[in-house]
Amino acid sequence: MNEEEFEIAEKMEKFGDSFVKCLAVCFYHADRPNIDKLKNAFSEYWEQYKKIN
What we know:
With 53 residues, the protein is an all-alpha fold. The protein contains four helices and no strands.
């Protein structure tokens, strides 16, 4: 996971509801192919938390 992806996952963990917090944990444990799959499958969440400063 690169730095930008890690920061987005942190925002998901900090500000998300219970599902999004669990999704953040999945990102922390995922390898590159699975990170890409998660980002694709949950792109709406990914983009939402990417916008948070």
